[in-house]
Amino acid sequence: MVHLDSILRVLVVGLILGAGLPALFAYGLVAYSAGAGGTDADGITRAPNPALKYLGVALFTIVAAVILVALLWITRSTIEHHFGVNLFPFVE
């Protein structure tokens, strides 16, 4: 039963990070692009929408933060060994 629980946890995290982050990044691109305004292929001019641009930037920031935390998590023991800093004190 312990193995099944571990497999399910890895599956859930893999789905969230493996499919969720690229989807979040794609939504950020769509929002930022729609917020930029401009002229469409059929000649229709759209006004810029700052709210959508800020939403796109916010989504990019979330993706970047998740990647940064993941890199720090992977290198946490090396950072603690060389610098004596425990970046995640709430985890063993």
Structure commentary:
The chain has 92 residues and is mainly alpha-helical. It has one domain. Helices cover 74% and strands 4% of the residues. The protein contains three helices and two strands; from the N terminus they run αββαα. The protein has a two-stranded antiparallel sheet with strand order 1-2. Helix 1 (2-36) packs antiparallel against helix 2 (50-74). The model has no long low-confidence stretch (mean pLDDT 91).
Radius of gyration: 20 Å
Tally of DSSP helical segments: 3
**Mean model confidence by pLDDT:** 91
Sheet of most strands: 2 strands, antiparallel
Beta-strand percentage range: under 5%
End-to-end distance, in Å? 23 Å
In short:
By secondary structure, the chain is mainly α.
Features:
single chain; 92 residues; mainly alpha; two-stranded antiparallel sheet; elongated
Fold topology:
Elements: H1 2-36, E1 38-39, E2 45-46, H2 50-74, H3 76-83
Antiparallel strand pairs: 1-2
Helix pairs in contact: 1-2
